[in-house]
Amino acid sequence: MATAVDKTKSRLGARGLRGLLLIGPAVLFLVAFFVLPLFDNAMRSFATADGQGFTLARYVQLLTDRFYLGVTLETVVLSTVVTLICAAIGYPVAYFLVRKAGRWSGLVIFLLIAPLLTSIIMRTFGWQVLFARRGLVNNLLVQELGWLERPLQIMNTPAIAIIGLVHVLVPFMVLSIATVLQGIDRRLEESAQILGAGRWRTFREVTLPLSADGIGTGAILVFMIANGSFVTLVLLGGGFQTLPLFIYQQFNTTRDFSMASAMSTVLLVIALACLYLQLRLVRRQGGS
Amino acid sequence: MRARSLTDLVLLVFVVLFFVFMLAPILIVVLISFTSASFAAFPIPGWSLRWFARIFEYQPFIDALLVSFTLAIVATLLSCVIGIPASLYLARARAGWANAVSTFLLSPLSMPMIVIGFASLFFLSQIGIGVSFTALVITHTVVCLPYVLRTVTAVYRSIPPSYEEAARILGASPLVTFREVTLPLIRSGIAAGCLFSFLTSFDNLPVSYFFGSSQTNTLPVVMLSYMEHQFDPSIAALSTLQLLLAVGALIVADRVYGIHKMTVAT
Fold it and tell me: Which of B65, B75, B100, B197 has its CA 20 to 30 A from that of B41?
Protein backbone atom coordinates (compact mmCIF):
# COMPACT_ATOMS: atom_id res chain seq x y z
CA MET A 1 0.00 0.00 0.00
CA ALA A 2 2.65 2.44 1.13
CA THR A 3 4.87 1.52 -1.81
CA ALA A 4 2.04 2.13 -4.25
CA VAL A 5 1.57 5.62 -2.84
CA ASP A 6 5.30 6.24 -3.05
CA LYS A 7 5.32 5.03 -6.60
CA THR A 8 2.51 7.38 -7.59
CA LYS A 9 4.28 10.19 -5.82
CA SER A 10 7.58 9.59 -7.55
CA ARG A 11 5.83 9.19 -10.89
CA LEU A 12 4.12 12.50 -10.34
CA GLY A 13 7.51 13.96 -9.44
CA ALA A 14 9.08 12.49 -12.55
CA ARG A 15 6.27 13.84 -14.66
CA GLY A 16 6.68 17.26 -13.12
CA LEU A 17 10.41 17.14 -13.78
CA ARG A 18 9.81 16.09 -17.37
CA GLY A 19 7.38 18.97 -17.82
CA LEU A 20 9.84 21.41 -16.33
CA LEU A 21 12.58 20.20 -18.66
CA LEU A 22 10.30 20.56 -21.67
CA ILE A 23 8.90 24.03 -21.00
CA GLY A 24 11.86 25.35 -19.01
CA PRO A 25 14.07 26.52 -21.88
CA ALA A 26 11.26 28.43 -23.61
CA VAL A 27 10.07 30.07 -20.39
CA LEU A 28 13.60 30.99 -19.28
CA PHE A 29 14.40 32.41 -22.71
CA LEU A 30 11.36 34.66 -22.71
CA VAL A 31 11.88 35.75 -19.12
CA ALA A 32 15.47 36.70 -19.92
CA PHE A 33 14.99 38.34 -23.29
CA PHE A 34 11.38 39.48 -23.30
CA VAL A 35 10.21 40.17 -19.73
CA LEU A 36 13.48 41.59 -18.39
CA PRO A 37 13.99 44.07 -21.26
CA LEU A 38 10.42 45.33 -20.88
CA PHE A 39 10.85 45.59 -17.11
CA ASP A 40 14.17 47.37 -17.51
CA ASN A 41 12.50 49.72 -19.96
CA ALA A 42 9.71 50.52 -17.51
CA MET A 43 12.29 51.17 -14.77
CA ARG A 44 14.08 53.64 -17.02
CA SER A 45 10.88 55.61 -17.37
CA PHE A 46 10.74 56.04 -13.57
CA ALA A 47 14.41 56.97 -13.09
CA THR A 48 15.46 60.56 -12.47
CA ALA A 49 17.93 62.15 -14.88
CA ASP A 50 20.93 61.17 -12.73
CA GLY A 51 19.70 57.60 -12.65
CA GLN A 52 19.55 57.45 -8.83
CA GLY A 53 16.09 58.57 -7.77
CA PHE A 54 12.52 57.70 -8.60
CA THR A 55 10.18 60.03 -10.43
CA LEU A 56 6.72 60.00 -11.89
CA ALA A 57 7.34 63.25 -13.73
CA ARG A 58 7.22 61.69 -17.20
CA TYR A 59 3.90 60.01 -16.57
CA VAL A 60 2.49 63.20 -15.07
CA GLN A 61 3.62 64.95 -18.23
CA LEU A 62 2.22 62.21 -20.49
CA LEU A 63 -1.15 62.24 -18.76
CA THR A 64 -1.65 65.94 -18.04
CA ASP A 65 0.25 67.83 -20.71
CA ARG A 66 -2.20 68.71 -23.46
CA PHE A 67 0.24 67.84 -26.20
CA TYR A 68 1.22 64.42 -24.88
CA LEU A 69 -2.34 63.56 -23.93
CA GLY A 70 -3.22 64.43 -27.50
CA VAL A 71 -0.62 61.98 -28.79
CA THR A 72 -2.02 59.13 -26.69
CA LEU A 73 -5.55 60.04 -27.69
CA GLU A 74 -4.62 60.23 -31.37
CA THR A 75 -3.05 56.76 -31.16
CA VAL A 76 -6.24 55.29 -29.74
CA VAL A 77 -8.55 57.21 -32.09
CA LEU A 78 -6.56 56.23 -35.19
CA SER A 79 -6.55 52.56 -34.15
CA THR A 80 -10.29 52.71 -33.45
CA VAL A 81 -11.06 54.24 -36.83
CA VAL A 82 -8.92 51.62 -38.58
CA THR A 83 -10.60 48.84 -36.59
CA LEU A 84 -14.11 50.07 -37.48
CA ILE A 85 -13.27 50.31 -41.17
CA CYS A 86 -11.73 46.82 -41.09
CA ALA A 87 -14.88 45.42 -39.47
CA ALA A 88 -17.17 47.14 -41.98
CA ILE A 89 -15.16 45.95 -44.97
CA GLY A 90 -14.16 42.60 -43.51
CA TYR A 91 -17.57 41.30 -42.51
CA PRO A 92 -19.08 41.02 -46.01
CA VAL A 93 -15.89 39.39 -47.27
CA ALA A 94 -15.90 36.85 -44.42
CA TYR A 95 -19.59 36.18 -45.05
CA PHE A 96 -18.90 35.61 -48.72
CA LEU A 97 -15.97 33.33 -47.93
CA VAL A 98 -17.98 31.09 -45.60
CA ARG A 99 -21.43 31.13 -47.20
CA LYS A 100 -21.09 31.89 -50.90
CA ALA A 101 -17.60 31.04 -52.12
CA GLY A 102 -18.20 27.29 -52.22
CA ARG A 103 -15.50 25.59 -54.23
CA TRP A 104 -13.76 28.94 -54.70
CA SER A 105 -13.07 29.28 -50.98
CA GLY A 106 -9.52 27.95 -51.39
CA LEU A 107 -8.79 30.69 -53.88
CA VAL A 108 -10.38 33.36 -51.68
CA ILE A 109 -8.26 32.24 -48.71
CA PHE A 110 -5.16 32.24 -50.86
CA LEU A 111 -5.91 35.79 -52.07
CA LEU A 112 -6.43 36.85 -48.45
CA ILE A 113 -3.17 35.33 -47.25
CA ALA A 114 -1.03 36.39 -50.21
CA PRO A 115 -0.90 40.08 -49.15
CA LEU A 116 0.21 38.95 -45.69
CA LEU A 117 3.30 37.57 -47.36
CA THR A 118 4.35 40.92 -48.79
CA SER A 119 6.46 43.40 -46.91
CA ILE A 120 5.19 46.78 -45.81
CA ILE A 121 7.88 48.25 -48.02
CA MET A 122 6.41 46.54 -51.08
CA ARG A 123 2.91 47.80 -50.35
CA THR A 124 4.11 51.32 -49.70
CA PHE A 125 6.04 51.29 -52.95
CA GLY A 126 2.82 50.17 -54.63
CA TRP A 127 0.78 52.99 -53.07
CA GLN A 128 3.38 55.48 -54.22
CA VAL A 129 3.30 54.24 -57.81
CA LEU A 130 -0.51 54.34 -57.72
CA PHE A 131 -1.15 57.58 -55.91
CA ALA A 132 1.83 59.88 -56.38
CA ARG A 133 1.21 63.26 -58.03
CA ARG A 134 2.31 61.77 -61.33
CA GLY A 135 1.16 58.30 -60.35
CA LEU A 136 -1.07 55.90 -62.21
CA VAL A 137 -4.38 57.11 -60.76
CA ASN A 138 -3.68 60.81 -61.26
CA ASN A 139 -2.45 60.17 -64.78
CA LEU A 140 -5.65 58.35 -65.56
CA LEU A 141 -7.92 61.00 -64.03
CA VAL A 142 -6.15 64.04 -65.46
CA GLN A 143 -4.63 63.05 -68.79
CA GLU A 144 -6.42 59.96 -70.03
CA LEU A 145 -9.97 60.68 -68.90
CA GLY A 146 -9.70 64.41 -68.31
CA TRP A 147 -12.04 64.26 -65.33
CA LEU A 148 -9.84 66.48 -63.22
CA GLU A 149 -7.99 69.73 -63.87
CA ARG A 150 -5.18 69.13 -61.44
CA PRO A 151 -3.76 65.94 -59.91
CA LEU A 152 -5.12 64.93 -56.51
CA GLN A 153 -2.85 65.14 -53.49
CA ILE A 154 -3.19 61.65 -51.99
CA MET A 155 0.23 60.74 -50.65
CA ASN A 156 1.11 62.23 -47.27
CA THR A 157 -2.52 62.70 -46.31
CA PRO A 158 -4.27 61.08 -43.34
CA ALA A 159 -6.44 59.19 -45.84
CA ILE A 160 -3.57 57.24 -47.44
CA ALA A 161 -2.15 56.37 -44.01
CA ILE A 162 -5.53 54.94 -42.99
CA ILE A 163 -5.85 53.11 -46.32
CA GLY A 164 -2.37 51.66 -45.79
CA LEU A 165 -3.19 50.44 -42.29
CA VAL A 166 -6.53 48.94 -43.36
CA HIS A 167 -4.76 47.16 -46.20
CA VAL A 168 -2.31 45.59 -43.76
CA LEU A 169 -4.87 44.65 -41.12
CA VAL A 170 -8.16 43.76 -42.82
CA PRO A 171 -7.15 40.12 -43.58
CA PHE A 172 -6.86 39.46 -39.84
CA MET A 173 -10.41 40.73 -39.37
CA VAL A 174 -11.78 38.62 -42.23
CA LEU A 175 -10.14 35.45 -40.93
CA SER A 176 -11.35 36.06 -37.36
CA ILE A 177 -14.94 36.62 -38.45
CA ALA A 178 -14.85 33.71 -40.91
CA THR A 179 -13.74 31.30 -38.18
CA VAL A 180 -16.78 32.15 -36.05
CA LEU A 181 -19.22 32.28 -38.99
CA GLN A 182 -18.11 28.79 -39.94
CA GLY A 183 -19.19 27.50 -36.54
CA ILE A 184 -22.71 28.93 -36.62
CA ASP A 185 -25.42 26.27 -36.74
CA ARG A 186 -27.22 26.89 -40.04
CA ARG A 187 -30.41 25.38 -38.61
CA LEU A 188 -30.83 28.47 -36.41
CA GLU A 189 -31.04 30.62 -39.52
CA GLU A 190 -33.36 28.16 -41.23
CA SER A 191 -35.64 28.15 -38.19
CA ALA A 192 -35.86 31.92 -38.26
CA GLN A 193 -36.80 31.84 -41.94
CA ILE A 194 -39.34 29.08 -41.46
CA LEU A 195 -40.87 31.19 -38.71
CA GLY A 196 -41.33 33.93 -41.27
CA ALA A 197 -38.30 36.19 -40.93
CA GLY A 198 -37.00 37.60 -44.18
CA ARG A 199 -33.40 37.10 -45.29
CA TRP A 200 -32.33 40.52 -44.07
CA ARG A 201 -34.09 40.14 -40.74
CA THR A 202 -32.59 36.66 -40.25
CA PHE A 203 -29.18 38.12 -40.88
CA ARG A 204 -29.70 41.07 -38.56
CA GLU A 205 -31.27 39.17 -35.68
CA VAL A 206 -29.66 35.74 -35.90
CA THR A 207 -26.45 35.63 -37.93
CA LEU A 208 -24.98 38.98 -36.92
CA PRO A 209 -25.43 38.54 -33.14
CA LEU A 210 -24.09 34.99 -33.34
CA SER A 211 -20.96 36.19 -35.12
CA ALA A 212 -20.36 39.08 -32.72
CA ASP A 213 -17.56 37.14 -31.04
CA GLY A 214 -15.70 36.90 -34.33
CA ILE A 215 -15.99 40.66 -34.82
CA GLY A 216 -14.78 41.09 -31.24
CA THR A 217 -11.75 38.83 -31.67
CA GLY A 218 -10.86 40.48 -34.96
CA ALA A 219 -11.38 43.97 -33.55
CA ILE A 220 -9.04 43.37 -30.60
CA LEU A 221 -6.42 41.85 -32.89
CA VAL A 222 -6.60 44.70 -35.40
CA PHE A 223 -6.68 47.35 -32.69
CA MET A 224 -3.67 45.81 -30.99
CA ILE A 225 -1.54 45.71 -34.14
CA ALA A 226 -2.71 49.16 -35.28
CA ASN A 227 -1.69 50.62 -31.92
CA GLY A 228 1.89 49.47 -32.35
CA SER A 229 2.39 50.08 -36.04
CA PHE A 230 4.72 52.80 -37.17
CA VAL A 231 6.44 51.69 -40.36
CA THR A 232 3.31 52.29 -42.43
CA LEU A 233 2.85 55.72 -40.86
CA VAL A 234 6.51 56.65 -41.31
CA LEU A 235 6.49 55.65 -44.97
CA LEU A 236 3.07 56.97 -45.97
CA GLY A 237 3.09 60.14 -43.88
CA GLY A 238 -0.22 61.76 -43.13
CA GLY A 239 0.94 63.91 -40.24
CA PHE A 240 -0.29 61.61 -37.51
CA GLN A 241 1.34 61.93 -34.11
CA THR A 242 0.98 58.60 -32.40
CA LEU A 243 2.93 56.95 -29.59
CA PRO A 244 4.94 54.59 -31.84
CA LEU A 245 5.85 57.47 -34.15
CA PHE A 246 6.97 59.48 -31.15
CA ILE A 247 9.11 56.65 -29.82
CA TYR A 248 10.66 56.38 -33.27
CA GLN A 249 11.26 60.14 -33.32
CA GLN A 250 12.69 60.25 -29.79
CA PHE A 251 15.04 57.44 -30.75
CA ASN A 252 16.20 59.06 -33.99
CA THR A 253 16.29 62.77 -33.39
CA THR A 254 15.35 64.01 -29.92
CA ARG A 255 17.14 61.14 -28.19
CA ASP A 256 15.16 61.58 -24.96
CA PHE A 257 15.22 57.85 -24.21
CA SER A 258 13.52 58.08 -20.83
CA MET A 259 10.49 59.79 -22.34
CA ALA A 260 10.45 57.16 -25.09
CA SER A 261 10.54 54.50 -22.37
CA ALA A 262 7.55 56.06 -20.63
CA MET A 263 5.67 56.13 -23.94
CA SER A 264 6.50 52.48 -24.65
CA THR A 265 5.21 51.60 -21.21
CA VAL A 266 1.91 53.34 -21.93
CA LEU A 267 1.74 51.46 -25.23
CA LEU A 268 2.52 48.24 -23.38
CA VAL A 269 -0.26 48.81 -20.86
CA ILE A 270 -2.75 49.31 -23.69
CA ALA A 271 -1.47 46.09 -25.30
CA LEU A 272 -1.84 44.19 -22.03
CA ALA A 273 -5.40 45.45 -21.65
CA CYS A 274 -6.16 44.19 -25.16
CA LEU A 275 -4.54 40.84 -24.37
CA TYR A 276 -6.71 40.53 -21.27
CA LEU A 277 -9.88 41.26 -23.27
CA GLN A 278 -8.77 38.79 -25.93
CA LEU A 279 -8.26 36.02 -23.36
CA ARG A 280 -11.67 36.66 -21.81
CA LEU A 281 -13.29 36.47 -25.22
CA VAL A 282 -11.47 33.26 -26.14
CA ARG A 283 -12.43 31.70 -22.82
CA ARG A 284 -16.06 32.62 -23.38
CA GLN A 285 -15.97 31.07 -26.82
CA GLY A 286 -14.41 27.94 -25.40
CA GLY A 287 -17.06 27.79 -22.70
CA SER A 288 -20.12 28.11 -24.89
CA MET B 1 -20.98 31.24 -56.75
CA ARG B 2 -24.29 31.71 -58.61
CA ALA B 3 -25.78 35.13 -57.99
CA ARG B 4 -29.24 34.08 -57.01
CA SER B 5 -30.50 37.46 -55.99
CA LEU B 6 -29.59 41.11 -56.10
CA THR B 7 -28.04 40.91 -52.61
CA ASP B 8 -25.76 38.12 -53.73
CA LEU B 9 -24.76 40.11 -56.78
CA VAL B 10 -23.99 43.20 -54.70
CA LEU B 11 -21.97 41.04 -52.32
CA LEU B 12 -20.03 39.51 -55.20
CA VAL B 13 -19.22 42.94 -56.65
CA PHE B 14 -18.13 44.12 -53.21
CA VAL B 15 -15.80 41.14 -52.76
CA VAL B 16 -14.30 41.61 -56.22
CA LEU B 17 -13.64 45.30 -55.45
CA PHE B 18 -12.16 44.27 -52.12
CA PHE B 19 -9.64 42.01 -53.81
CA VAL B 20 -8.83 44.67 -56.41
CA PHE B 21 -7.99 46.93 -53.45
CA MET B 22 -5.97 44.18 -51.75
CA LEU B 23 -4.01 43.11 -54.81
CA ALA B 24 -3.57 46.36 -56.78
CA PRO B 25 -0.60 47.80 -54.84
CA ILE B 26 1.09 44.40 -54.93
CA LEU B 27 0.57 43.55 -58.60
CA ILE B 28 1.62 47.04 -59.60
CA VAL B 29 4.98 46.52 -57.89
CA VAL B 30 5.44 43.17 -59.64
CA LEU B 31 4.78 44.87 -63.01
CA ILE B 32 7.14 47.75 -62.25
CA SER B 33 9.94 45.34 -61.39
CA PHE B 34 10.05 44.22 -65.03
CA THR B 35 10.25 47.72 -66.52
CA SER B 36 13.08 48.80 -68.77
CA ALA B 37 12.68 52.44 -67.72
CA SER B 38 14.94 53.93 -65.07
CA PHE B 39 12.03 55.24 -63.00
CA ALA B 40 9.08 53.63 -61.26
CA ALA B 41 6.10 54.90 -63.22
CA PHE B 42 3.47 53.98 -65.77
CA PRO B 43 3.12 53.52 -68.67
CA ILE B 44 5.88 50.94 -68.87
CA PRO B 45 7.90 51.59 -72.05
CA GLY B 46 9.34 48.10 -72.34
CA TRP B 47 10.21 44.96 -70.42
CA SER B 48 13.56 43.98 -69.03
CA LEU B 49 15.26 42.17 -66.19
CA ARG B 50 17.77 44.95 -65.54
CA TRP B 51 16.39 45.76 -62.09
CA PHE B 52 16.80 42.18 -60.98
CA ALA B 53 20.41 42.37 -62.20
CA ARG B 54 20.79 45.64 -60.31
CA ILE B 55 20.02 43.85 -57.02
CA PHE B 56 23.08 41.70 -57.47
CA GLU B 57 25.29 44.63 -58.46
CA TYR B 58 24.47 46.69 -55.39
CA GLN B 59 26.63 45.30 -52.59
CA PRO B 60 24.50 46.50 -49.60
CA PHE B 61 21.55 44.47 -50.98
CA ILE B 62 23.66 41.32 -51.24
CA ASP B 63 25.09 41.76 -47.76
CA ALA B 64 21.67 42.43 -46.27
CA LEU B 65 20.11 39.51 -48.13
CA LEU B 66 22.74 37.25 -46.61
CA VAL B 67 22.22 38.67 -43.11
CA SER B 68 18.44 38.32 -43.35
CA PHE B 69 18.63 34.79 -44.69
CA THR B 70 21.08 33.55 -42.05
CA LEU B 71 19.17 35.37 -39.32
CA ALA B 72 15.81 33.91 -40.34
CA ILE B 73 17.24 30.39 -40.39
CA VAL B 74 19.09 30.68 -37.07
CA ALA B 75 16.12 32.32 -35.29
CA THR B 76 13.78 29.64 -36.67
CA LEU B 77 16.09 26.81 -35.57
CA LEU B 78 16.43 28.29 -32.11
CA SER B 79 12.65 28.73 -31.91
CA CYS B 80 12.23 25.05 -32.80
CA VAL B 81 14.82 23.86 -30.29
CA ILE B 82 13.15 25.63 -27.36
CA GLY B 83 9.62 25.79 -28.77
CA ILE B 84 8.87 22.22 -29.88
CA PRO B 85 9.53 20.59 -26.46
CA ALA B 86 7.32 23.21 -24.82
CA SER B 87 4.54 22.55 -27.37
CA LEU B 88 4.76 18.81 -26.74
CA TYR B 89 4.16 19.36 -23.07
CA LEU B 90 1.56 22.12 -23.30
CA ALA B 91 -0.57 20.37 -25.92
CA ARG B 92 -1.23 17.47 -23.54
CA ALA B 93 -1.20 19.31 -20.21
CA ARG B 94 -4.54 19.83 -18.55
CA ALA B 95 -3.45 21.79 -15.48
CA GLY B 96 -4.62 25.39 -15.17
CA TRP B 97 -1.10 26.74 -14.90
CA ALA B 98 -0.20 25.14 -18.25
CA ASN B 99 -2.77 27.43 -19.80
CA ALA B 100 -1.10 30.40 -18.17
CA VAL B 101 2.30 29.26 -19.45
CA SER B 102 0.87 28.97 -22.98
CA THR B 103 -0.52 32.47 -22.77
CA PHE B 104 2.83 33.77 -21.56
CA LEU B 105 4.79 32.03 -24.31
CA LEU B 106 2.43 33.42 -26.97
CA SER B 107 2.34 36.94 -25.50
CA PRO B 108 5.19 38.40 -27.61
CA LEU B 109 2.68 38.28 -30.50
CA SER B 110 0.49 40.81 -28.73
CA MET B 111 3.16 43.29 -27.71
CA PRO B 112 4.01 46.19 -30.01
CA MET B 113 7.15 45.28 -31.96
CA ILE B 114 8.54 48.78 -31.63
CA VAL B 115 8.48 48.40 -27.84
CA ILE B 116 10.20 45.00 -27.99
CA GLY B 117 12.88 46.43 -30.29
CA PHE B 118 13.45 49.61 -28.32
CA ALA B 119 13.54 47.86 -24.93
CA SER B 120 15.79 45.03 -26.17
CA LEU B 121 18.34 47.44 -27.63
CA PHE B 122 18.97 49.06 -24.26
CA PHE B 123 18.78 45.84 -22.28
CA LEU B 124 21.11 43.88 -24.55
CA SER B 125 23.58 46.77 -24.62
CA GLN B 126 23.64 46.76 -20.82
CA ILE B 127 24.52 43.07 -20.67
CA GLY B 128 27.21 43.48 -23.30
CA ILE B 129 25.51 42.01 -26.36
CA GLY B 130 24.73 45.38 -27.90
CA VAL B 131 24.22 45.84 -31.61
CA SER B 132 25.33 42.52 -33.04
CA PHE B 133 24.12 39.54 -35.00
CA THR B 134 23.61 37.72 -31.68
CA ALA B 135 21.30 40.50 -30.54
CA LEU B 136 19.29 40.13 -33.75
CA VAL B 137 19.05 36.37 -33.27
CA ILE B 138 17.80 36.83 -29.70
CA THR B 139 15.15 39.45 -30.51
CA HIS B 140 13.97 37.64 -33.63
CA THR B 141 13.62 34.42 -31.66
CA VAL B 142 11.39 36.25 -29.15
CA VAL B 143 9.15 37.25 -32.06
CA CYS B 144 9.32 33.91 -33.93
CA LEU B 145 8.91 31.48 -31.03
CA PRO B 146 5.12 32.00 -30.71
CA TYR B 147 4.59 30.99 -34.35
CA VAL B 148 6.38 27.65 -33.92
CA LEU B 149 4.70 27.09 -30.58
CA ARG B 150 1.20 27.80 -31.83
CA THR B 151 1.29 25.61 -34.93
CA VAL B 152 3.06 22.66 -33.32
CA THR B 153 0.75 22.76 -30.28
CA ALA B 154 -2.33 22.89 -32.52
CA VAL B 155 -1.20 19.92 -34.61
CA TYR B 156 -0.05 17.83 -31.66
CA ARG B 157 -3.31 18.48 -29.81
CA SER B 158 -5.30 17.18 -32.78
CA ILE B 159 -3.47 13.82 -32.64
CA PRO B 160 -4.99 11.28 -30.25
CA PRO B 161 -2.51 10.11 -27.58
CA SER B 162 -3.46 6.49 -28.38
CA TYR B 163 -0.81 6.23 -31.15
CA GLU B 164 1.96 6.93 -28.70
CA GLU B 165 0.37 4.74 -26.03
CA ALA B 166 0.20 1.85 -28.51
CA ALA B 167 3.90 2.23 -29.29
CA ARG B 168 4.77 2.27 -25.60
CA ILE B 169 2.64 -0.80 -24.88
CA LEU B 170 4.35 -2.63 -27.73
CA GLY B 171 7.62 -1.98 -25.97
CA ALA B 172 9.09 1.08 -27.64
CA SER B 173 11.21 3.29 -25.39
CA PRO B 174 10.13 6.94 -24.93
CA LEU B 175 12.90 8.05 -27.29
CA VAL B 176 11.97 5.55 -30.00
CA THR B 177 8.29 6.46 -29.57
CA PHE B 178 9.15 10.10 -30.06
CA ARG B 179 11.36 9.49 -33.07
CA GLU B 180 9.20 6.91 -34.83
CA VAL B 181 5.68 7.98 -33.88
CA THR B 182 5.40 11.51 -32.52
CA LEU B 183 7.84 13.27 -34.80
CA PRO B 184 6.39 11.97 -38.08
CA LEU B 185 2.90 12.89 -36.86
CA ILE B 186 3.79 16.50 -36.01
CA ARG B 187 6.17 17.01 -38.93
CA SER B 188 3.58 19.05 -40.84
CA GLY B 189 3.06 21.32 -37.84
CA ILE B 190 6.78 21.87 -37.50
CA ALA B 191 7.06 22.66 -41.22
CA ALA B 192 4.26 25.21 -41.07
CA GLY B 193 5.63 26.74 -37.87
CA CYS B 194 9.08 27.06 -39.45
CA LEU B 195 7.58 28.66 -42.53
CA PHE B 196 5.72 31.31 -40.50
CA SER B 197 8.75 31.87 -38.32
CA PHE B 198 11.10 32.24 -41.30
CA LEU B 199 8.80 34.66 -43.12
CA THR B 200 8.18 36.70 -39.97
CA SER B 201 11.88 37.09 -39.33
CA PHE B 202 12.76 37.75 -42.96
CA ASP B 203 10.17 40.49 -43.20
CA ASN B 204 10.70 42.08 -39.80
CA LEU B 205 11.42 45.79 -39.83
CA PRO B 206 10.24 47.28 -36.49
CA VAL B 207 12.59 45.15 -34.38
CA SER B 208 15.57 44.97 -36.74
CA TYR B 209 15.44 48.73 -37.22
CA PHE B 210 16.92 49.31 -33.76
CA PHE B 211 19.87 47.04 -34.43
CA GLY B 212 21.09 48.62 -37.64
CA SER B 213 24.82 48.70 -38.32
CA SER B 214 26.94 47.91 -41.36
CA GLN B 215 27.27 44.30 -40.18
CA THR B 216 23.72 43.80 -38.96
CA ASN B 217 21.54 45.57 -41.50
CA THR B 218 18.76 43.25 -42.55
CA LEU B 219 17.13 43.43 -45.95
CA PRO B 220 14.03 45.43 -44.87
CA VAL B 221 16.26 47.97 -43.08
CA VAL B 222 18.47 48.43 -46.14
CA MET B 223 15.41 48.68 -48.41
CA LEU B 224 13.92 51.33 -46.14
CA SER B 225 17.04 53.49 -46.18
CA TYR B 226 17.44 52.97 -49.95
CA MET B 227 13.86 54.14 -50.46
CA GLU B 228 14.52 57.30 -48.49
CA HIS B 229 17.15 58.35 -51.03
CA GLN B 230 15.89 57.08 -54.35
CA PHE B 231 12.75 55.77 -55.90
CA ASP B 232 13.90 53.35 -58.58
CA PRO B 233 12.46 49.96 -59.57
CA SER B 234 15.18 47.93 -57.82
CA ILE B 235 13.06 48.00 -54.65
CA ALA B 236 10.21 46.61 -56.77
CA ALA B 237 12.46 43.84 -58.09
CA LEU B 238 13.61 42.92 -54.58
CA SER B 239 10.02 42.92 -53.30
CA THR B 240 8.96 40.70 -56.19
CA LEU B 241 11.74 38.23 -55.42
CA GLN B 242 10.71 38.21 -51.77
CA LEU B 243 7.07 37.63 -52.69
CA LEU B 244 8.01 34.77 -55.03
CA LEU B 245 9.98 33.15 -52.24
CA ALA B 246 7.06 33.49 -49.81
CA VAL B 247 4.38 32.30 -52.24
CA GLY B 248 6.58 29.39 -53.28
CA ALA B 249 7.06 28.39 -49.67
CA LEU B 250 3.32 28.76 -49.01
CA ILE B 251 2.43 26.51 -51.95
CA VAL B 252 4.92 23.88 -50.78
CA ALA B 253 3.51 24.10 -47.25
CA ASP B 254 -0.02 23.80 -48.64
CA ARG B 255 0.93 20.55 -50.41
CA VAL B 256 2.17 19.16 -47.11
CA TYR B 257 -0.30 20.73 -44.77
CA GLY B 258 -3.33 22.33 -46.43
CA ILE B 259 -4.15 26.03 -46.43
CA HIS B 260 -7.47 25.53 -44.69
CA LYS B 261 -5.88 23.91 -41.68
CA MET B 262 -3.23 26.57 -41.59
CA THR B 263 -5.72 29.41 -41.23
CA VAL B 264 -7.36 27.61 -38.34
CA ALA B 265 -3.99 27.09 -36.69
CA THR B 266 -3.07 30.74 -36.91
Answer: B65
